[in-house]
Write a structure and sequence with these properties.
Blueprint lengths: L2 H23 L3 E2 L11 E2 L3 H19 L8 H19 L8 H24 L7 H24 L6 H20 L2 H17 L12 H21 L4 H5 L3 H16 L12 H7 L4 H23 L4 H33 L24 H7 L25 H7 L11 E2 L2 E2 L2 E2 L6 E2 L55 H14 L1
Antiparallel strand pairs: 1-2, 3-4, 5-6
Length: 506
């Protein structure tokens, strides 16, 4: 029994390097584009080695079992031959356009019809009596099943090793189901398929030296579909033959429906399958193949519950578990993308409501008060609104005209200094126009100098002229602002008297 899978594995491993060399010579290469997940040109058509391996396994099975007692592997062999040829034509002629999609679909349907007919005849002439109803159902559903699964297997062959792993799991599952139901074609066919897939795996995983291509995916898909159809006609529970490949069916069906609803051309290559989105999210090809293989193995084990003839409630629980695994697989890309987005997102900034008050206050970068006063003039009333406004004091009387004339000065009303309970009153800087505390450091007043010279008739400044920018009430000063508290008005009557006396003296 183990001679056939061993022969299939060895034949595949020996033939694969020759196929790689020949495909490179023919320049049958898969060039990376926006719809593929590889980055370097890689030969395709490596599935031709898988076809040789399957044929070798079938030959060893027939020779080792004898012609009379050999298991009926004709449906599987015919499926591999017909669909393998279609796939090989697509691979070799892919660079010149290949086969048109509708024409290729028509060829697949014709091949599926022929395969279904041969399968029904093989089961009918055997010792198993499928019944008329099953034969009619197989004749109707068979072509659709074979065509759909072949294309599904081809669509799912998008990352390294995924199809080799899936074919191995399906072959082992079919072998176990065949052993439970004593179905020799299912046992022998499953072993041959698993052996050929294992022989191809080293050339495609983890680094792809060659791709299966359409010839390999069509051949493996057709072999699995033919074995499943033959097992169902022979009385093997449907769950047992569908469970190992349920992930491929679910992923293809959901993606196809989504693309049709979006108005896309569903028959063209794309990257929207669940396994492709996992690879796009950052998973390696090995991780994707391993994840799908693990889930497929679990589904295969649950399907064997039905093959073992378990009670209906147990079978229902096993079927529900398979459904949950399928849902988890289809939702895996969304969960991985959400986790990746949460990891790459920057940390959220704390809001002002949550900010603590333990942080030190920001340093004051404003200019000193005196500099701001000179650069940004403001009314004197805004200097310190907290100080109380003192009551106005009377203006001191002007000196006698005679004394003023003798000193050569003009009497000018000077505001008297006042005090308040809260501290000294502010005085005004003539240049800045801002009040300033007397308590601050200021330039000390010097002795009175000679009277400043001015134009005829202009009053002289009290205490002599002061240089610009030093403040005061000199001739160059701007003078204090008029406020109710301080009077800066000139006594014009005294000024006229001084002028009259000065004229008489001359």
């Amino acid at each position: 029994m183990l001679g056939a899978p061993f022969a299939a594995c060895v034949a595949t491993m020996i033939t694969a390097p020759l196929v790689i060399w020949y495909m490179r010579r023919l320049a049958v290469l898969d060039v990376a584009n926006e719809r593929t997940l590889h980055t370097v040109p890689t030969p395709r058509g490596g599935g031709a080695a898988v076809v040789v391996g399957i044929f070798s396994g079938v030959l060893v099975t027939v020779l080792s079992s004898g012609r009379a007692s050999a298991p009926d592997l004709l449906p599987m062999t015919l499926a591999v031959a017909l669909f393998g040829l279609i796939g090989l034509a697509e691979d070799v002629g892919g660079d010149i356009g290949g086969i048109a999609p509708l024409r290729r679909l028509a060829m697949q349907v014709l091949a599926a019809l022929a395969l279904t007919g041969v399968t029904v005849l093989s089961v009918a002439v055997s010792d198993t009596d499928p019944g008329l109803a099953m034969v009619v159902a197989a004749a109707v559903i068979g072509p659709l099943w074979v065509t759909a699964f072949v294309n599904a297997f081809n669509f799912m062959d998008g990352v390294n090793g995924i199809s080799a792993v899936q074919a191995t799991v399906a072959g082992v599952g079919f072998t176990l189901a065949g052993l439970v139901h004593d179905h020799e074609p299912l046992v022998a066919g499953g072993l041959v398929v698993a052996g050929a897939a294992l022989g191809f795996a080293p050339f495609n995983l983890p680094r792809a030296l060659v791709f299966l291509g359409d010839v390999g995916s069509y051949a493996l898909g057709a072999a699995i579909a033919a074995l499943a159809l033959q097992a169902a006609l022979s009385g093997v529970p449907v769950e047992a033959v569908v469970a190992p490949v349920v992930l491929y069916l679910a992923d293809t069906a959901t993606t196809l429906i989504r693309r049709i609803r979006a108005g896309e051309r569903w028959y063209l290559p794309h990257r929207s399958h669940a396994y492709q989105r996992l690879a796009t999210a950052g998973w390696s090809h090995t991780a994707v193949a391993g994840y799908t293989g693990m889930l497929a193995t679990t589904c295969m084990a649950l399907g064997l519950v039905s093959a073992a003839g378990a009670p209906v409630p147990v079978r229902a629980c096993a079927d529900l578990a398979i459904l949950l695994l399928v849902v988890r697989y289809l939702g895996a890309p969304r969960r991985v993308a959400a986790r990746l987005a949460a990891t790459d997102a920057p940390a959220e900034q704390p809001s002002t409501d949550d900010a603590t008050t333990d942080e030190p206050p920001a340093a004051d970068t404003r200019a000193p008060a005196d500099t701001r006063a000179a650069a940004e003039p403001r009314p004197a009333a805004d200097a310190d609104p907290t100080l109380p406004t003192p009551a106005p004091s009377p203006t001191p009387p002007a000196p006698p005209p005679a004394a003023a004339a003798a000193e050569g000065r003009v009497a000018v009303a000077v505001p008297a200094q006042r005090t308040s309970p809260d501290g000294p009153e502010p005085h005004v800087d003539a240049d800045a126009g801002q009040p300033r505390r007397r308590g601050r450091r200021s330039r000390p007043a010097g002795p009175p100098g000679p009277p400043a010279a001015g134009p005829p008739g202009a009053p002289a400044a009290r205490g002599g002229a002061r240089p610009p920018g030093r403040g005061g009430w000199g001739a160059g000063g701007a003078g204090p602002p008029a406020t109710p508290a301080v009077s800066h008005a000139v006594d014009h009557e005294a000024l006229d008297g001084v002028r009259a006396d000065a004229g008489g003296a001359r």
